[in-house]
């Protein structure tokens, strides 16, 4: 049985936007969140926090490190804002925040607003997988670089480990966005060499919205003092002494006030599903369906698929053929999306070989026009 509930009648190839709901999610939500609330009311907190511990443990199982290296976040933007606000003044007075022009706009907005605290944002226009260009861009004025592991508009994969190594030698803080890679590209966060990793469970991890996370290098976490805090940033949240604030000694110092619980209960269930499947198996299935899709396409369309290393999503620029291809896919019931003239489709384990062939055959009915 498919471990996911697939919406609609046609092929669902929108995992890059929202992953399908795991069948296990409803039972997890009922037993881990709703039943404790119904039976215990205000005394449900111990059970709810055990669910959060399970979420953090699930992340550590998939991505390495210890559960204490992970802090729940509502989304990546919130995590980035918290880290930037916690950075102490740089001894060398470096104040440039560097990111690729292709970065997700929400994170770019956070970088832009950091200008209110004296930072200057520079968006590099080079291809995000060009290591030589990254090397040249990491100039002496750069304080922090935001590296997107897999870019949502192109599918390009940035050489994160190599960039992180350059940053380490130059004293530059390296923050990595894994929203489009977590759950599809096998990755060890500690092995990346980055300082901070920001992610979300809504896409390839199939954990729904609201279940973001922050991984931070342990020694760095203990050296930073976030300003966006609350009682769950405290070493003992239930101490209840307004005169005594002490940071949690792990990543939870970046947590904040009263946490949401339900999104992380659902996401923890999904993490268990992905861990059981293995990310390696998810990737292998994705590559198998991509190969079937490309083989089914007519030769004149096959050459139009970018050949660069990619995450799990095919981002195919269509030019003037955009509307015709989109209409053909919609007529076949395919659930996909568009970014400008780029059609985006992604295959997860919820998809079958027939799905890949259905998408390709609908596409084949359109003649290219450029």
Structural commentary:
The protein has 370 residues and is α/β, with parallel strands linked by helices. The chain is built from 13 helices and twelve strands. It has helices at residues 24-40, 45-63, 76-86, 105-113, 131-137, 160-170, 189-192, 218-223, 262-277, 279-296, 299-302, 322-331, 353-364; strands at 4-5, 21-22, 70-73, 96-100, 120-124, 142-148, 173-177, 196-200, 212-216, 313-317, 337-339, 342-346. It has a seven-stranded mixed sheet, with helices on both faces. Helix 4 (105-113) links the parallel strand 4 and strand 5 (120-124). The longest helix has 19 residues, at 45-63. The model has no long low-confidence stretch (mean pLDDT 94).
Pick out its properties:
370 residues; alpha/beta; Aspartate Aminotransferase, domain 1; Aspartate Aminotransferase, domain 2; seven-stranded mixed sheet; 13 helices; 12 strands; globular
**What is the annotated CATH architecture of the largest domain?**
3-Layer(aba) Sandwich
Strands across the major sheet, in which order? 3-9-8-7-6-4-5
Reported for the largest beta sheet, the result is: 7 strands, mixed
What is the 3D form?
globular
> Ends: how far apart?
43 Å
Overall mean confidence score, pLDDT: 94
Number of strands: 12
The value of Rg in angstroms is 22 Å
- Could you state the CATH homologous superfamily of the largest domain? Type I PLP-dependent aspartate aminotransferase-like (Major domain)
The H/E string reads: EEHHEHEHEHEHEHEEHHHHEHEEH
Examine the coordinates and then state which fold CATH places here, giving the name of the CATH topology of the largest domain.
Aspartate Aminotransferase, domain 2
Give the number of domains.
2
Low-confidence parts: none
Q: Helix share of residues?
A: 25-40%
CATH top level of the largest domain? Alpha Beta
Q: Count the DSSP helices.
A: 13
């Amino acid at each position: 049985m498919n471990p996911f509930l697939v919406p609609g009648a046609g092929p669902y190839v929108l995992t890059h936007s929202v992953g399908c709901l795991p069948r296990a999610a409803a039972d997890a939500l009922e037993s881990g969140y709703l039943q404790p609330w119904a039976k215990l009311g205000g005394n449900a907190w111990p059970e709810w926090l055990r669910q959060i511990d399970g979420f953090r443990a699930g992340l550590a199982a998939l991505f390495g490190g210890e559960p204490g290296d992970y802090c729940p976040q509502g989304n990546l933007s919130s995590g980035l804002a918290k880290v930037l606000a916690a950075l102490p003044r740089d001894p060398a007075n470096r104040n440039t925040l560097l990111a690729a022009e292709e970065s997700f706009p929400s994170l770019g907005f956070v970088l832009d607003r950091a200008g209110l605290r004296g930072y200057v944002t520079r968006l590099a226009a080079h291809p995000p997988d060009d290591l030589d260009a990254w090397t040249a861009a990491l100039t002496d004025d750069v304080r922090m670089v935001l590296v997107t592991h897999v870019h949502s508009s192109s599918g390009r994969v940035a050489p994160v480990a190599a960039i992180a190594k350059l940053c380490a030698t130059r004293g530059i803080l390296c923050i990595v966005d894994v929203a489009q890679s977590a759950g599809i590209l096998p990755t060890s966060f500690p092995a990346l060499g980055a300082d901070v990793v920001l992610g979300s469970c809504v896409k390839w991890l199939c954990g729904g919205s609201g279940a973001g996370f922050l991984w931070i290098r342990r020694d760095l976490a203990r050296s930073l003092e976030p300003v966006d805090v609350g009682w769950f940033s405290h070493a003992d949240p239930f101490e209840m002494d307004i005169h005594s604030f002490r940071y949690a000694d792990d990543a939870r110092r970046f947590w904040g006030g009263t946490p949401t619980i339900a999104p992380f209960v659902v996401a923890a269930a999904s993490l268990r599903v992905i861990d059981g499947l293995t990310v390696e198996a998810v990737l292998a299935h994705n590559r198998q369906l991509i190969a079937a899709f490309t083989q089914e396409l007519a030769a004149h369309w096959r050459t139009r698929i970018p050949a660069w290393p990619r995450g799990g999503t095919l981002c195919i620029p269509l030019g003037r053929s955009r509307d015709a291809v989109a209409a053909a896919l919609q007529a076949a019931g395919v659930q996909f999306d568009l970014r400008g003239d780029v059609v985006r489709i992604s295959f997860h384990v919820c998809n079958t070989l027939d799905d890949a062939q259905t998408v390709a055959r609908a596409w084949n009915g359109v003649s290219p026009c450029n």
